[in-house]
Prior knowledge:
Blueprint: H1 2-14, H2 18-29, H3 34-40, H4 47-86, E1 102-103, H5 105-119, E2 123-124, E3 130-132, H6 133-136, H7 147-151, E4 168-170, H8 176-185, E5 189-198, E6 209-219, H9 224-239, E7 246-253, E8 256-267, E9 274-275, E10 280-290, H10 292-297, E11 306-313, H11 314-322, H12 335-341, E12 343-344
Parallel strand pairs: 2-5
Antiparallel strand pairs: 1-12, 3-4, 5-6, 6-11, 7-8, 8-9, 8-10, 10-11
The structure holds 3,4-dihydroxyphenylalanine.
3,4-dihydroxyphenylalanine binds next to strand 10 and strand 11.
Amino acid sequence: MDDLKAKYLTQIADAGDEAALEAIRLAAVGKKGEVSLKMRELGKMSPEERQVAGPALNALKDEINSALSAKKSALADKALDERLRSEWLDVTLPSRPARHGTLHPVNQVTEEVTAIFAEMGFSVAEGPRVETDWHNFDALNIPGHHPARAEMDTFYMHRAPGDTRPAHVLRTHTSPVQIRSMEAQGAPLRIICPGGVYRADYDQTHTPMFHQVEGLAIDTDISMANLKWVLEEFVKAFFEVDDVELRFRASHFPFTEPSAEVDIRCSWEGGTLKVGEGDDWLEILGSGMVHPKVLQAGGIDPDRYQGFAFGMGIDRIAMLKYGIPDLRAFFDSDLRWLRHYGFASLDVPTLHGGLSR
Ligand code: DAH
């Protein structure tokens, strides 16, 4: 019995893991283990022999069992120690260098446009996105029956029956900021108004919310020639080309007279847009001389002042300049897209430092 005890206690002490420990348990005190088999022999013994052997075997069994469980918890402690050591983490380390966020192309292009017009003396004006029906339409010489109201797919704000406050819409263009700026600042005036606008429309080049930039210059001696020069300077700077040909196409907008849509000469050779060369024309904006009724609505005397105005899609010129095929992706918040088309947030565009790098 002393031999058995010595054998198993040594094996237990040497066991390297739980599996080895279990094998020892089975060999010693399992149903067919050596100690169990010895216990079965008690039946064949004389009562005197049994009186000595019985308690001794039981004591041996107890001793082996408690050695097994002591070793088992020692092994578990060791495993935990090892795991804690391997998973050790220094929480005082500085954080991982963060992924830098990027500037959305709409913001980038807004900054670029703002930088270019700032150089020509235009400041930035803003207006509300929930706009009165009057500022969005009537003041811009678009009366209630005018087809432009229907064409614009306007989102109207809900009104309770009997509500007598002015009707509101989600502004369908940035042109109402012309009126708000005239009301607030009077003439002379030289502003651009970038911002979000809304129309119920959705396909590859239309989203229900998109961005425009409005331009407005009012003074006592403003002509279409000023408009042409300003737009030429803008297009050259924006598309970063030395020269570009503009085409003024007669058009109609209720808030300008005369009105012109402006195309720029370009080529689409090889599927990429090149501004300033080639035989294609690309429409980029609407413009004209501010209609006298619009000046009047803004509280400015049309007999003393004239002005030019233009409106341009920011998302559209961003797509053109940076070769982005689908407008809808602008507003999907897909991080892969944002990282691909985004701009470094600290590279503020300036005319001297470079607009896009
Ligand atoms: N508001 C027009 C639109 O959303 C764009 C526009 C055209 C603005 C001519 C102007 C302008 O200021 O003169 O389609």
